[in-house]
Write a structure and sequence with these properties.
This protein is mostly beta strands and 575 residues long. The protein has 5 helices and 40 strands. The protein binds 2-acetamido-2-deoxy-beta-D-glucopyranose (4 copies). It comes from Setaria viridis.
């Protein structure tokens, strides 16, 4: 609770005293401290389903789902409907509760969705047409593909998941997906699956998988290489990180194009020693790409959480950053303000910040396997000089441990949900109850003090249909900045207008500490032109990425950024 107080108190003597107390507490153990940047809001005390997996779609609704076989959730299926699935492990006789929900951001309301087979620890991609394609799961859901359309209009309250039984060639439980330039999903790994495959398949009866020795090589007795981190490089190859090292895969020829060195001391960074990873923002017409991997847990940590001598080992506080396009790449190590396992890394729309949020300061992913939540997010600023990149943020009071997740919303907030380190929904008698709540973390750029600098996109309309764009074409944007309008009347034009950039961001499928398909591109922008007769209003044109390798087809959010303050995004559809 003290942590929360610090987060919410302005600089004051009390703040200083608390900070000193916390500094002492911190020095005496691993309990992380917190700063004062950003703000937490509780959006919903309970949406009835714990947010193990989340994906924002271009109707500004977030598809949320959990596993289906831990008993009843706290959200009833509509109209007295029940799921009777004899292969269901917990309630084979019938389950009348929902295990998926659609959260409407503007209405701050959720409605139940129906999934039949088990979606536990699965993965997903948004297809080029905007449909969520979820793959894999457990038990009767191991090889299934499920699609969730973008609901709206007359079917807005009735549309739901469809399932395809045995659509995949292999069981995919703890696998990772990455959308490819041709719009298909690349699906890699899963428990005891040392292979990859593609979905959808040209021939539905195609049951072939491609073996991947790298996953055998990086497997250890605790596994520690599940949910590999995958990023589409600017050369079209796939950067794949598992356990403590990475390769560049030419998936078209099934050839390893490059082998990267081991990250630092070899400590594992993938599930259950879950760290997280992002492809850092790409510059216009990029010639370089960098990956950042943060947190994780030392080897042996997962085993230590089991048995009678159960202990929670402090998590890793290090990040590794690597130029994946470099012919002789090397990891550069940086240290976070606090250790973190099961954190999530989310690219913020200003292109200048990465949020590192959720998770614990000790233990690992797994049932009852962590003891010290890390309540305070950290912001990482990749362009600052080393040593000046991390900044601790205000803390929440809600533990977001195993099975928590986070996605970026179009308004720049982070939607934070989930956390259930138990095999069932347990609300009492446990230290970290199952979380059905949703919170929003608003980064500092959303502070009121930035309101005068905040750009607002006027055209295309942020509430209209997504703008259709093609590769290499120009998107004209008109936006306003309140500070400029004010000052202009007094004579001095352009006041409050800093460097203008335009970013384009693919929303992620987030689960188990990895935001799949997340991608941020800076677009090339022309000169910002003041619109005559409309104080504080400007035109700017942005050039769309040249190829589908840079930006696979689909829906992206586009933001105008004034200095470091982003506008609300607009949806664009690139094909
Ligand atoms: C969930 O439902 C149970 C049983 O109806 C109830 O005791 C509990 O308070 C609910 N919890 C939440 C977080 O909604
Ligand atoms: C973890 O435990 C398993 C089974 O008990 C054992 O096979 C394995 O060697 C242990 N791994 C480590 C890293 O201690
Ligand atoms: C959680 O609830 C289930 C079902 O009510 C119970 O069997 C289990 O022991 C509980 N787990 C914990 C960790 O208390
Ligand atoms: C700004 O854009 C609008 C709409 O596309 C256009 O009519 C106007 O001429 C532009 N003005 C300037 C100064 O570029």
């Amino acid at each position: 609770m003290e942590l929360r107080l610090v987060g919410e108190t302005r600089a004051s003597r009390r703040h200083l005293v608390l900070l000193l107390l916390l500094a002492c507490a911190y020095a005496s153990g691993i309990a992380p401290a917190s700063g004062s940047g950003g703000r937490w809001d509780l959006l919903q005390r309970s949406i009835g389903v714990s947010a193990m997996h989340m994906q924002l779609l271009h109707n500004d609704r977030v598809i949320i789902f959990d596993r289906t076989d831990f008993g009843r959730s706290n959200l009833s299926l509509p109209g007295g409907r029940c799921r009777v699935n004899p292969r269901e492990r917990a309630l084979p006789g019938g389950d009348c509760t929902a295990h998926s929900a659609e959260y409407d951001v503007a209405a701050n309301a959720a409605r139940p969705l129906f999934v039949f087979t088990d979606t536990w620890c699965s993965s997903g991609t948004v297809a080029p047409d905007g449909t969520l394609v979820q793959t894999g799961g457990w038990n009767d859901g191991y090889r299934n593909a499920r699609t969730m359309p973008v609901c709206g209009g007359s079917d807005g309250k009735s549309c739901d998941w469809s399932e395809k039984q045995d659509a995949l060639a292999a069981n995919r439980w703890y696998a990772t997906n990455q959308i490819l330039p041709d719009g298909r999903a690349f699906i890699i790994g899963g428990r005891r699956q040392f292979s990859y495959e593609f979905y959808p398949k040209a021939d539905p009866s195609d049951t072939s998988v491609i073996q991947m020795p790298f996953l055998v090589q990086t497997r250890d007795p605790e596994e520690n290489n599940l949910y590999p981190f995958v990023h589409l490089n600017i050369d079209g190859n796939l950067f794949i990180f598992a356990k403590n090292r990475a390769i560049l895969l030419d998936y078209k020829r099934n050839k390893v194009a490059r082998t990267y060195p081991v990250l630092a001391d070899g400590d594992p960074r993938n599930y259950p020693s879950s760290g997280s990873s992002v492809l850092l923002p790409l510059k216009p017409n990029p010639t370089e790409a960098e990956v950042l991997v943060c947190g994780g847990a030392p080897s042996g940590s997962y085993n230590s959480t089991k048995g009678s001598a159960r202990t929670f080992v402090p998590a890793l506080a290090t990040c590794g950053r690597i130029k994946i396009t470099d012919p002789s790449p090397a990891w550069v190590i940086e240290t976070m303000p606090s250790p973190r396992v099961m954190g999530d890394m989310i690219l913020l729309p200003n292109g200048a910040e990465v949020a590192i949020i959720n998770g614990a300061a000790d233990g690992t992913a797994g049932w009852e396997a962590a003891g010290t939540p890390n309540y305070a997010p950290v912001i990482y600023r990749p362009d600052r000089s080393p040593g000046d990149r991390f900044e601790e943020q205000a803390a929440t009071g809600v533990a977001r441990l195993y099975h928590s997740s986070v996605v970026l919303l179009r308004d720049g907030r982070l939607l934070v949900g989930g956390s259930n380190p138990h095999t069932y929904y347990n609300f009492s008698g446990v230290e970290f109850p199952t979380e059905l709540s949703l919170e929003a973390f608003s980064p500092e750029y959303l502070d009121q003090s930035n309101d005068m600098l905040r750009p607002r996109i006027l055209d295309p309309s942020p509430v209209g249909a997504a703008s259709s764009v093609s590769y290499g074409t120009t998107l004209k944007l008109q936006f306003s900045v309140p500070a400029s309008a004010r000052r202009r009347r007094g004579g001095a034009g352009g006041f409050g207008l800093g460097e203008v950039s335009v970013t384009m961001l693919a929303p992620s499928f987030t689960t188990h500490s990895f935001a799949m398909n997340q991608r941020l591109l800076f677009l090339e922008v022309g000169k910002t032109a003041a619109v005559r007769g409309r104080a504080g209003t400007y035109n700017v044109s942005a050039t769309m990425p040249a190829t589908a390798v840079l930006a696979p087809p689909g829906y992206y959010m586009v933001f105008v950024v004034n200095g470091h303050v982003p506008s609300e995004g607009i949806w664009v559809h690139i094909q």
